[in-house]
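Please check this protein record:
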Amino acid sequence: MKINASSILMLVLMTLPLKSLASDENALLNADFTASVFLLTNSKSKNITRVHLINTSSVNQVFSGTLYHQTGDLLGAEKTPLHDSPIPPGARLIFSAEDLELKLGIDSWNGPAMLEITGNESFSVMSRLENPSGLITNTNCVTENSLINIESPNSADKSYLRFINTTDNEYAAITASLYKKSGEPTGSRDTVLLDGLGPKQQIWITERDLIDKFGSDWSEVGMLEVEPIQGLKLINLNYSAEQETFFNFSCSENGSDLERIYLQTSSSSRNISFTHLLNNSEKNQSFTGTIYGSDGSVLGSENQPLHEGSLSPKSRLIFSSQDIESIFEIPPWEGPAILEINGSERFSLVTKLTSPSGLISNTNCATKEQVHNLLGYDEVDFSYIRFINHGDHSLPKITGTVFDEQGNTVGVADSVIIDSLPPKAHLWVSRDQLSSAIGSTWNGTASLKLSSSPADLRLLNLNLVGNQTFFNFSCFESGISAKNFAPQITNRSREFFLVEGDPFSLFATASDANNDPVTFSLDGEDGNAFALDPSSGRITFRIEPNFENPSDHDLDNRYNFSVVASDGKEATQTSFSVQVSENPSNSKSRNTLDNCTAQSGEDVFGRPILNTYKCRLVSDDLPREFFIYVPEKYTNGSSETSLLLSLHGYTSNALLNLRYSGFQSIADEEGFIVVYPQGTILPSTQETHWNVGGWTVGSQTDDVLFFSQLIDHLAQNLSLDLDRVYSTGMSNGGFMSYELACQLSERITAIASVTGSMTPQTYDDCNPQRAVPVLQIHGLLDLVVPYSGNAIMMPIDDVMQYWSRKNNCSVPSETLTIPSSSGAGIGGRRESFKNCDDNALVELILLYGMGHDWPIANSIYRSHDLDAAETIWDFLSSFTL
């Protein structure tokens, strides 16, 4: 058999702390994050509020709440625990006013109240208001300084404005100005609207209040500008008396000289959009627009003037879909469009969408990274997500994970939801399409968290009620800390492949716990070889690399650079390495393996076995066998790639290990080669084994020699990166991985043992020549290789202490809780010995409910709280010799 491999481009990244700028990770766990429910109705109200408190962090959290009456008085005790047991990552706590009254031990309060929620990590708070009509609307969305949808006195709908003092300070008189559509004031500017507002006090301003203060001289929708006050939050609700339903108009796109309407329907749609453009600057402005179809194509002319003359300060322009079609001289388009508008100063955009039901809702409110109101298959209404690329470059595949109400992963984690999204393109993903992408359904309300969300990607989370009315749930409150934290770069892939000569681009992505804007910059010895957009994070080569004439610092076709993500105060840094290889058309492949036969069949999950070969090798005069998996990415290239050795257990075999271990799907994504060696027969038991001492004492097989010769054989016939050779194994295979770390440390980069340990012989004779990174995954209920050890197996704690001392790691270790993703409440812990020599790491993952098992948690089968294959590769692939 001959395995052909074309040349490739490999990108390797690993995250490094920028110690001079990065904040202490431990401080994050000790910081208070707070967010509020700003409009919490009481249990006697005919409008029922149900609060959804979502743990968006990666750790269990305990939440407390402090409830304030609308007068600002405290209701119940401060920081009352809101639940009995910790909330797992991705899970949500759902409660009503009645639940809160029981927790606080109080009677029903009068009017809406404000609930301040505290956690120690990131979280989100969404409220769903159940109106007497049966319709559910989103009310936990606030704004500052201006309210832009004040219905006129002659409108059938009425505006209710909520003024909220979120601070502990008393506000003096609050002034405001009410502006007509023309921009002219109604009544006097800077009129005293409220004589004051006490700490934590909340008050309604009604139409009657506005008429008393400003008169009734506004016949169309108006804008109320409020003097800026630190901590003053505003809510703009519209009430439809006919439908007995509140709609939230607090959210708009605003604050810069370029804004967008994200959901512009055409005149042929059943849903009619009215776009409101408000010049809330102090200068005249002229506005131009460009409209983009769903595929990102321009409809009509770019930068088309939207009006004649200029728009005066505080005035607004209202146009329908028909108006837009007339302005751009285009026919009705298919599906929603994006309208991108340019001005010269700040302005605001809001969309009032009239549904077939006659109800008017606010749809121009987008979010990033995650959405929290995905209705499940036990609901009669439907959820949709609009994925919007408002950037100028195509976005690569978009992946994400869906979490149900208990925090369980629904279907496959990090599923591909969209393969690519062209510039300016935008498309719907329905509940059913999302379910198909992740491979499962859910009940209740779920969240979608994107794995690595580009800066130019926006999300709209809409619910379609009764097949007639869209409700926007894109706006919610996020927990914010007074302490600033550095943004975290979220790129997850370790290796990417690209044939030389093909275009190369990478989007650096980051998340910020404080929701601060993030900018990117380049550093490193080859940083000048790349161009980076500081806002979008897009990275490209300035000049296409030439394999024959490398221009990198070391002239070895490996370009080393770093990306820094900063919020202006603190930053983190991630190192990247791009290795460029010759195009296969310019080089004859040297990648061949002899004495191999192709294999077929299925793994234990029913997936076909492809690109897999059974091969033979003579070592120490013994015929030895191994299986090799060569991913498609390698078949199409000839760059040096990583090698993973996966070792079976005692009495087992290589083919069975290949079928259950789950590495092939990861190898497909990451591009590494997996080899499954076969052990020999132990004469005393006639069972397959690896010679590690202990119960295998008496074996004459030199397995260390075999693995050394196997690596040589593979390196002679395949393009391997010999600085990235890893070993892992189950049980006896884990013991053998430790033996290799001890005796072949100059060739084995890092190891991972699952339910294995070290025998006394391996322990006593261990002689590593360097610091070897070690990962141990073990079950507390393992009776075959006991956690506490026995006469032929070292205790796991002793093994961890040996390698932490050998690698000169810091003490004490750091321990994190592993939550129970199965809902069984079992979980485990992850103990890390850090700051070791040569950037090594020693880690123990102890699963409390696991016995002598290989933990699996993939899309097809879940046995435990983590997936061994994914966890092992994430650990191993971060190290190099």
About this structure: The domain at 590-876 is CATH 3.40.50.1820 (Rossmann fold). The radius of gyration is 31 Å.
